[in-house]
Design a protein that fits this description.
The protein has ten helices and eleven strands. It has 328 residues and is of the alpha/beta class. It is elongated and about 70 Å long. The protein binds 6-O-phosphono-beta-D-fructofuranose.
Amino acid sequence: MAAKIQKIGVMTSGGDAPGMNAAIRAVVRACAYYDIQCIGFYRGYQGMIENDYIDLLPRTVKNIINKGGTILKSVRSDEFRTVEGRKKAYMNLKQNEIDAMVLIGGDGTFTGGVIFSEEFDVPVVGIPGTIDNDIIGTQATIGYDTALNTVVDAIDKIRDTASSHNRLFFIEVMGRDAGFIALNSGVGAGAEEILIPEENIGLEKLLESLKRSKRSGKSSSIVVVAEGDKTDENVFELAENVQKQMPEYNCRVTVLGHVQRGGSPSCFDRVLASRLGVKAVEFLLDGQRDIMVGFENSKITSTDLHNIKKGSHDINRELLRISDILSI
Ligand code: F6P
C-alpha cells in the first residue's frame, strides 16, 4: 500500500521551455486543492543537493501562467550523476519530509529521476517540458508549440527581407538531434526546403530542389535547417557550398538560437501544462509512481519512466512529403 503523500517537491531541470511556469502553477494549486504541502527546489537537482528551496502556496504562483522561462530556475546538474550527489539530495528530501517529487524537464531529467527513485524509493512523476518535442510517450512537450510560433514569426520576418533582396536564406533552428521544430515550422512558414537529421537528403538533392525553385520563377527562397542536420559540417559551410555551386543565388544565414526558448507561452502550452501539472499530482495521490504524464490524442496519458528513451518518437514523414509538394 503506497505511503500517504502529504508533501510534494517540484523542480525544473534541463533546457527551460515556455509553459514550465504554468506547469509549476498547476502542481502547486493541485496540491493546495488536495490539501498537500508543496515546495519548489531551485535549479533542478542541484537545488535538491544544496537544499535550496521555497515553500509554494497558491498565491506564490500568481501571475506566472503567462511568463516564459521558469521561476524555479534550471541547470543540468553533473553532481546529481554521482551517488554522493543523489544521496545528499535524498537526505534533504527526508529532512524536509517530502514524500514524492514532480520533475519538469526532458529525457535527461527523467533518466536521473528513475535512478533516484529506485535508489531511495522516492516516488517521482515526470512532466515533459522541452521545446525539442523529442520524448516518447507524448505527442507534445510543454514549450514546443510556443517555440514553433516563435520560429514561424521569425521566418515570416526574414522572408520579407529575402524577397526584397532576392536572397536565399538558411535558417538554423533548435531541436538538438530531432527535427520536429524544423519540420513543423518549415511547413508553417512555407519554406522551400527543410533539412532534418531524420531524413538526410544530401547536398545534391538540395541543389536540385533549389534549381527547381529558380526555374519556377522564385527570386528568393528559405531553407530551414535543424541544428542536428547532417547535410554539411554546419549551416555556414552549407550556405557557402550552395553559394559556390549556385552563384546566381545571394545566400545569407540566420541562426535563431535561444530566442526559441523564451517568450510568453502559447494558449496551447498553457492548457497542456495546466492539465499535465494537475494530473501529475493526482497520479501520485492515486499511488502511481515513476511515470511521465503525457498527451496523446487529446487525452492525458502516463508512460513508465523506464520506457522514456530519446528519439524514438518518429517524425511525421507525411509532413515531409507535403512540404515537397507545397514548395513547387
Ligand atoms: O533541449 C533544449 C535545447 O534548447 C536544444 O534545442 C538545444 O540544442 C539545447 O537545448 C541548447 O542548450 P544550451 O541552452 O545549454 O545551449
